[in-house]
Every structure is written in structure tokens, then in C-alpha cells.
Design brief:
The protein has helices at 3-19, 33-43, 69-74, 92-101; strands at residues 25-30, 51-55, 82-88, 111-114. The protein is an alpha/beta fold and 126 residues long. It has a four-stranded parallel beta sheet with strand order 1-2-3-4.
């Protein structure tokens, strides 16, 4: 998807949440830098709105799309509307390594972290 297509896909949900009176948006389980950039760009259409951005990660260094987590969190610095950055839906054993890889961001953005339980979903065990 293009950046504009991603923005178009997210816009109705962002508008609905803002209209409902949300104080802070949680952009969660982001798998790729491109999607984070689209959300940050979309957020500019709502200048009074703040959000946090959290990525889903596949190992101790990378978000699910394959980019380095340390590079992905830097995207949050392009907007003062992003008030925290971090990870979710990630195996707990990867959290420490991921956060250590992004310590350079800590002076600029607090971390938000909520890993999954460590269980693995498989279709045959539904």
C-alpha cells in the first residue's frame, strides 16, 4: 500500500475516536515503518490530538516487517504529537534487548511497553 492508501484506511477510525472524545490515541501493533509514517502524517490533520506509537516485533532487534526497532522508534521524533513510543504484541523475552537497542530515544520519548503473554497462536490449536 502507498502512504496515502494507508492514511485513507486509518482516517475513518482516527476521526471516529477523536469525535468520541478520546484524550490520547494508541497506534498499536504497527508492523512497519511505512505505516508509522502514514499515521504520523495523518495525525497532522488533527493538530490538537496526541498519540503513542507501538510496534509489534519479531525478535530482539526487528519489528515484524524486518526494519530495526532502533530505527523504527526514531520515526516518532518527527512529530511532537507522538508522546511515547514502544512495543506491544511481542514475546516478553525480546523486550529488554529491544529497549536497550533504542536507549538513544529515551531522552526524547518515554517508552510504552506491553508484551503479549508469550504464547504462540497456531490455527490447529484454536
Amino acid at each position: 500500500m502507498t502512504l496515502e492508501q494507508l492514511k485513507d484506511w486509518h482516517r475513518p477510525r482516527v476521526e471516529a475516536l477523536i469525535k468520541a472524545g478520546a484524550d490520547l490515541l494508541a497506534f498499536e501493533t504497527i508492523p512497519a515503518i511505512k505505516e508509522a509514517e502514514a499515521l504520523i502524517s495523518l495525525l497532522q490533520e488533527f493538530p490538537d490530538t496526541k498519540a503513542w506509537l507501538s510496534y509489534s516485533c519479531k525478535d530482539g532487534q526487528h519489528i515484524c516487517h524486518g526494519e530495526r526497532f532502533s530505527e523504527a522508534v526514531e520515526v516518532s521524533l518527527i512529530s511532537d504529537q507522538i508522546v511515547a513510543v514502544g512495543l506491544n504484541c511481542t514475546y516478553p523475552q525480546h523486550v529488554e534487548q529491544l529497549l536497550l537497542s533504542a536507549q538513544h530515544i529515551r531522552a526524547h520519548r518515554p517508552f510504552v511497553v506491553y508484551p503479549n503473554s508469550g504464547k504462540e497462536w497456531t490455527s490447529d490449536k484454536r
